[in-house]
Write a structure and sequence with these properties.
CATH class of the largest domain: Alpha Beta
Largest sheet: 7 strands, mixed
CATH superfamily of the largest domain: Type I PLP-dependent aspartate aminotransferase-like (Major domain)
Radius of gyration: 21 Å
Bound molecules: pyridoxal-5'-phosphate
CATH architecture of the largest domain: 3-Layer(aba) Sandwich
Number of domains: 2
Shape: globular
Helix content: 40-55%
Order of helices and strands: HHEHHEHEHEHEHEHEEHHHEEHEEEH
C-alpha cells in the first residue's frame, strides 16, 4: 500500500486543455488548439481502413509482436534484441525509473525540460538533481557532468533532445562527450528523442550509431509526433539487449494494444507512409519559418526550435487567458523564469495564421 502523504507530493501531469472544454467555457464556435505538440495532419485513409478492418479482433490479446519488433528494428537499422515497443514513449520514462530506481538512486535532468521526468521520479520516490541550462536555453552537458561527478548516486540521466519546451538540442559531439565521460560508471543516459523526426540541424546526434558504441545509451522514440499516432499511444525504446531485458521485466503483459500494433507496423513498413512523413515535416518546417518571421515583425523574442513547437515571449502573463478567451489554446509554462513565455505547437496553415492574428491583437490591444 502506497504511503498517501508521499503520493500527495507527486505532481500531476497537466495535459493541454481540450477544445470542447474551451468552446463550452467561453461559448465559442471555433477553438484552435496549439498546445500539445500533436501532429495536426489526420492519418492517411489507407491506415484508417486497415485499423477499421482489425476492429473485429479486439476480443483477443495482441499476438503479433515479433513481426512488428522485426519491422521496427529494420526501420531503425538495429538488431531486434535492441528494440522494445511501448504504450507511448512515456511508458519507458516511467518503467526505466521503476527498473533502475531504488531508495538510494538519484535521477539527473536538465531544468526547463519535460515535466514527466520529475513526475515519474517522484512517484518512484527517487531523488532528482537538476542541471541549470546554458545560454539559449540549451541543455548544459558540462553542468551535468559536474553533477555526476559530485553525486555518485545518480544512475539515470534524462535528456529531451530536441528539448521540450525550449526546442534546443545537444549536438553529436556534446552527446559523445557525455557518453565518453560516463562510460563504465553504472549510469544510464536516456535520450528522449520524441521530436527526432522534425530535426533540421546537421550536427544533431546520430544516436543509433552511438547507442551501438556506448551500451549505456538508451533511446526513446515517440510515434506520437511525426508519425501522428498520439491517440494510439505508441513508442519505441532502442537500447542494449541487457537494458531491453531489464525493462521487459517491469512492463505489463500486452502493453501495446492490438490496434496500435497494426498502426506501428503500417508506419514502419508501408512505403506510402513516407508521403505522410514528408508532409508532416514540410508543414512543421514551413510553419516554424512563418512563426519566426511573424514574431520578429512583432519584436517578440523566441527560441529557434528543432521540434514541432516554439517557445516565445509575449511579455505579459495575462496573454494566456486572453488568447484562451479568444479561442486559442497555447501552453503556459510552470517553470521559474518562463512566466512570460508561451509554447505554441505547429498547426495547419490556417490555424497558424489565426494564432499569429490573435497574438498580434493581444499586443496591440493591451
Ligand atoms: C520530450 C517528450 N518526451 C516524451 C513525450 C511523450 O510521448 P508519447 O506520446 O510517445 O508518450 C512527449 C510528449 O509530448 C515529449 O514532449
Amino acid at each position: 500500500m502506497k504511503n498517501l502523504t508521499e503520493m500527495d507530493k507527486v505532481e500531476n501531469y497537466t495535459p493541454g486543455l481540450s477544445i470542447e472544454e474551451i468552446q463550452k467555457r467561453y461559448s465559442l464556435d471555433k477553438v484552435y488548439k496549439l498546445a500539445s505538440n500533436e501532429n495536426p495532419l489526420p492519418p492517411p485513409e489507407e491506415l484508417v481502413n486497415i485499423l477499421q478492418s482489425k476492429i473485429h479482433t479486439i476480443h483477443r490479446y495482441p499476438a503479433y509482436m515479433r513481426p512488428v519488433v522485426k519491422a521496427v528494428s529494420a526501420y531503425y537499422q538495429v538488431e531486434t534484441q535492441h528494440t522494445l515497443l511501448g504504450n507511448g514513449s512515456s511508458e519507458f520514462i516511467d518503467k526505466l525509473m521503476q527498473a533502475y530506481g531504488s531508495p538510494r538512486v538519484s535521477v539527473l535532468v536538465s531544468e526547463k525540460s519535460f515535466p514527466l521526468y520529475t513526475i515519474c521520479a517522484q512517484s518512484h520516490r527517487l531523488n532528482i538533481y537538476r542541471a541549470s541550462m546554458k545560454e539559449g536555453l540549451k541543455v548544459h552537458i558540462q553542468k551535468m557532468l559536474s553533477l555526476l561527478d559530485r553525486h555518485k548516486d545518480i544512475r539515470l540521466v534524462f535528456i529531451s533532445n530536441p528539448n521540450n519546451p525550449t526546442g534546443s538540442y545537444i549536438t553529436h559531439s556534446e552527446l559523445e562527450t557525455l557518453l565518453f565521460e560516463t562510460k563504465g560508471k553504472s549510469v544510464q543516459i536516456v535520450l528522449d528523442e520524441a521530436y527526432w523526426g522534425y530535426v533540421r540541424a546537421k550536427d544533431f546526434p546520430d544516436s543509433v550509431s552511438l547507442m551501438q558504441k556506448y551500451p549505456h545509451l538508451i533511446l526513446l522514440r515517440s510515434m506520437s509526433k511525426v508519425m501522428g499516432l498520439a491517440g494510439l499511444r505508441a513508442g519505441v525504446m532502442l537500447a542494449h539487449p541487457t537494458v531491453v531485458e531489464t525493462v521487459k521485466k517491469v512492463l505489463c503483459p500486452f502493453n501495446v494494444n492490438i490496434i496500435s500494433v497494426e498502426a506501428i507496423l503500417y508506419c514502419v513498413s508501408n512505403r506510402s507512409f513516407q508521403e505522410y512523413l514528408f508532409h508532416s515535416k514540410e508543414l512543421v518546417w514551413n510553419s516554424l519559418d512563418y512563426f519566426y518571421s511573424e514574431l520578429q515583425k512583432m519584436n517578440l523574442p523566441f527560441y529557434p526550435s528543432q521540434g514541432n513547437f516554439l517557445l516565445f515571449s509575449i511579455g505579459k502573463p495575462s496573454a494566456f487567458s486572453y488568447l484562451l478567451k479568444r479561442g486559442l489554446i497555447l501552453r503556459s509554462l510552470n517553470e521559474p523564469g518562463l512566466e512570460h513565455y508561451l509554447r505554441m505547437s505547429v498547426g495547419l496553415e490556417q490555424e497558424n495564421k489565426k494564432a499569429i492574428e490573435l497574438i498580434r491583437e493581444f499586443i496591440t490591444q493591451t
